[in-house]
Amino acid sequence: MRKRIILFLIRWYETFDKPLPNWLERACDKDIALGLELDEERELTSELSQKPDWSPVKPNPFQAERIIACLEEEERPVMARTTPWREISIGVAACIAIAIAYQWIGSQPNPADSEMIVETQPDGDALNAEQSQVIIANLNRVAKESDWKNPLDQEIEYVLGDAKEAIDFLADSFVPSSFRSSEREG
């Protein structure tokens, strides 16, 4: 412990360029390791106190050319960039395809409208009441069997179902079992 304190004091005095006290000089003279440490600190202090030799640095002969080239690049007017015709044509084609799809979907007959379709014979003869009732019944049966649902309604049902499953999972995972059983009963 004493030796560590003496090493600290040697470094401190040498760092601040102060002369060592006599008792510290005597301790360094008696102990070889402390004397070596004092010599190393003095050598380091002397090296750091010397001014560095700043010999003139030779500049890179190509440095001026590189700087001028960079300046010329900045001064050049920015050329008009070419129009990305490929991306524009793909976007237009996608818009046209979507418009055609909407037109095609809109022209599809709605199954609910099939009840109103009444066929007449081209020669003007009216069907008897019994045959027309059979046709209407068949059309109603086909419309009910198709079970067409609005896709947005189905999506809302899916979202609500997923939300319910997520809430059930969180309740099962994080709510104490004693509380869960009373909640589900009520």
Number of H- or I-type helical stretches: 8
**Rg measurement, Å:** 48 Å
H/E element order: HHHHHHHH
As a percent range, the share of helical residues equals 55-70%
Number of strands: 0
Low-confidence stretches: none
Derived from helix and strand composition plus strand pairing, the structural class reads mainly alpha
Please identify the oligomeric state: single chain
Mean pLDDT: 76
Strand content: under 5%
Shape: elongated
Largest sheet: none
Q: Could you characterize the architecture of this molecule?
A:
The chain is mainly alpha-helical and 186 residues long. The mean pLDDT is 76. The longest helix has 24 residues, at 151-174. The chain is 69% helix and 0% strand. The chain has helices spanning 2-15, 22-30, 32-49, 63-75, 85-107, 129-146, 151-174, 177-185. It is built from eight helices and no strands. Helix 1 (2-15) packs parallel to helix 3. Among the domains are: 2-49, no CATH class; 110-185, no CATH class.
